[in-house]
Amino acid sequence: MTVIDIPPAPGPIEPSLRIVSTRVYRGPNVWSYDPAIHLVVDLGVLEYYPTHAIPGFADRLVELFPGLQHHSCSRGKEGGFVERLHEGTWLGHVAEHLALQLQQEAGHDVRRGKTRGVKGEEGRYNVVYAYLEESVGIAAGQLAVRIVNHVVHPEDGFDVEAALETFHALVQRRAFGPSTQAIIDEAVSRDIPWTRLNGASLVQLGQGVHAQRIRATMTSRTSALAVDIACDKSLTLDLLGSAGLPVPKSEVVRTREGAIQAAREIGFPVVVKPLDGNHGRGVCLDLTDDEAVSEAYDIAMAQSRRGVLQVESFVTGKDYRCLIIDGRMAAIAERVPAHVVGDGEHTVDELIELTNADPRRGYGHEKVLTKIKVDDAARDLVADQGYAMDAVVPEGETVKLALTGNMSTGGISIDRTMDAHPDNVEIAEEAARLIGLDVAGIDFICPDITVPVRETGGAICEVNAAPGFRMHTHPTVGEPQFIAKPVVDLLFPPGSPSRVPIVAVTGTNGKTTTSRMLAHIMKGLGKKVGMTSTDGIVIDERLLITRDASGPKSAKMVLQNPRVDFAVLEVARGGILREGLGYDRNDIAVVTNIQSDHLGMRGINSLEDLANVKQVIVEAVPRDGFAVLNADDEYVRRMRRVCRGTIVWFSMEAPGSRVRQFIDERCVRGDRAVVLEPTDKGEMIVLKQGRRSMQLAWTHLLPSTFSGAARMNVANALAAAGAAFAAGAPLHDIRQGLRTFTTSYYLSPGRLNRIEVDHAEVFVDYCHNPAGLQLLGEFVDRYVAGKNKSTRVQRTVVVGAAGDRRDQDIREMGELAAKWFDHVIIREDDNLRRRAPGVTAALVAEGAQQAIDSGEARAASVETVLDELEATQVAIDSARAGDLVVICADKHARVMAALEDLTHLATPGAHADEAAHPGDPDFSRDAVFESPEDDVIDELLPSS
């Protein structure tokens, strides 16, 4: 056994473990393929006290939680974690295992976790562990930390058992009922994704256009009319009786006198129950005289929502529940009313307490059996059988505690699925069809379900919408029936899809334009595309929400939309770090590039760190999926090692280069590629699969490339074409999509939007990092050169930088602006990101001045105008006819509105920042349309 060495402690042992931050990953993330809880914990002085240095710690912990002995940890064998405890391990690691154990003891099968030190912060650890239910997972982590501290040094007033009871109560509150859980388990076994839509039992199965919803055992296909009919017990019996099915005589009443009169007319014994009741509440059986009916009237009326009761003839026999799904019998259970069996030693009260101690019994529908409730009706029933509640019941004697066999009143069930006579099954199936329920519970009362009820007597007393499954999935006696299968078959017939194709796009630059290009291509195929981007959520080319929607919550909104049959999701670094992905896997992953941006934030300090975050979408590709990777980028190229699917490479490199040789080798192995082939007529985009090559389009003929000058959009077109090819789009449709995609504000707001102001060309672009500005400068160089103008074109740029970037990155923005442009105007964002006004602009100006001083700059003048609109005005005022102005906008819609005011012509997107009312970019709330005067109208109208 190896015992770890530790440095001298700065102080005595004390319970100093605490949680610094909590993060919930709801999908694949940088730590795990599965949802996980991420705690950052600080050990304090306990950093110097591993477990072996704390006397008795390991033994006390294992005594409290013996299940920890089964944890294998990194040893790969049972008991490995206990070995680590005795050898010495840090308490953050202990908290991880304890959080898993707490969830396991609550019935959640979670096993995976890891603990790693926080880089550069001694005593702090990343504790990551799996969870099934979010609030339970968080509570498990919090309780684990508290218990670890308690084992280190007992906390006054802290009762571990009471804390565990509180934790288990939370688990039960958040748990699905047996019926819902059975359907979800069946869906998971078929790889059908599911999402909980509220805190109760409303669940979505599937995605987008294929989605179905359930609430317990009601489904998207359950008829509301059928539910209304089933809730009206009188109408139900009338419909069944008119079809010739056996039903008891019945009559609807509203008064006590009416109930007594109806009982006399029907004939004693009778049943009185609420017309709109459920779960057997308020049902009074075997009433033999007027007095019994009068007493039952009060009980039933207390449970009636509408004040209407039903009196019906009492049918003797056993209580059977026939479950009918999609018109076919799925299961039959005999329901036995709540009761206890004497043992000659315990009283009725004690027998009830012993019965309720069964761990299978809980409150309501939280467990497979319900605790027996002792009320006045139960006491009266016990008294009628000759017993007092404190009387000892003879051995073998049965004491009934309820007359109805409902599971919700403490009854038990016996499976009779294989015993039922075919005639009885046919009657139950016909009853469900008559009412119109897709999932129905038919309550049969008859002497024996194995004999036809038409011969022995019996009747259908109720038809129930949303019947519970637990009597069938967890019968007290007999074999469980797997009845969730026909429910899922009903919603998703065998062979039908449950998922929509998901394309995830990430990268430092180009991801938004690539997403829009791909969405445009798929729209041409007739797809209803749901897209998320930094500009908002778009469903079928309709902007629904204006905001940065590149995170997991926006992805979930798209996948819940019932119109979406193809999803294109822009995935940003921040969303992955904050919550992981908003889904379990993506069919296609697109990574455009890894470049210097957002470094120094949230622990991302290098390009390698950034690549590890971005590659999460590549790790989420299944074996039958695709990853579209930029072969020109070293960090993106490495991502092939974590991809389980097929790789589609794209490259701007020329034939014969090392990258192209690499691609050719990979294509021989089964990969695909989208590359450029230069000719004397221009560059051709070519798709490669194996040894085959397919021509796609000329780059200079694609509108978004500005005759090939916008090389960044050539690269984006390659990535979009590769993703569309992987998605199965025909080549003709890919060509057509690329040929019709433009950088107009309608298709690509804020990305290289060109307008003309006083004969000067103005480009508005959301350029916000050095790599993007470098590409933008190269574009301007090529674009101006392609004009063949004899006069010199002045190039002006309005540029800014995000205040949360590193100082060197902000200075580099100024250096690049000065390198490519003649006139540099520096502005600041509205959101200064914790910097003082003017500080960010000063850093940009410093970088620009350094470039000018070095003699490597083009710029002749640099000025600072902090307000974006004022900077725009200055740039336009300084431009002459034929000059070129590039505005690197923070709020592009606002800039477009300012340009509209200058041109006095409507400009696309000028009113799009009315974020509270997203809609058509041309819509203006301020526009006034004057009607012609009456005399003008008279002149236009023909004379009579």
Question: Main attributes?
Answer:
single chain; 35% helix; 944 residues; 31 helices; alpha/beta
Short note summarizing the structure:
The protein is about 35% helix and about 20% strand. It contains 31 helices and 38 strands. The longest helix is centred in the first third of the chain and has 19 residues, at about 135-150.
Could you walk me through the main structural features you see in this protein, from its secondary elements to its overall organization?
The longest helix has 19 residues, at 134-152. 35% of the residues lie in helices and 21% in strands. α9 (256-266) packs across α10 and α26 packs parallel to α27. It has an 11-stranded mixed β-sheet with strand order 25-24-23-26-22-27-28-29-30-31-32, sandwiched between helices. A 6-stranded mixed β-sheet has the order 33-34-38-35-36-37, sandwiched between helices. It has a 5-stranded antiparallel β-sheet with strand order 19-14-13-20-21. It is elongated and about 110 Å long. It starts with 17 loop residues before the first strand and ends with a helix. The mean pLDDT is 91. With 944 residues, it is α/β, with parallel strands linked by helices.
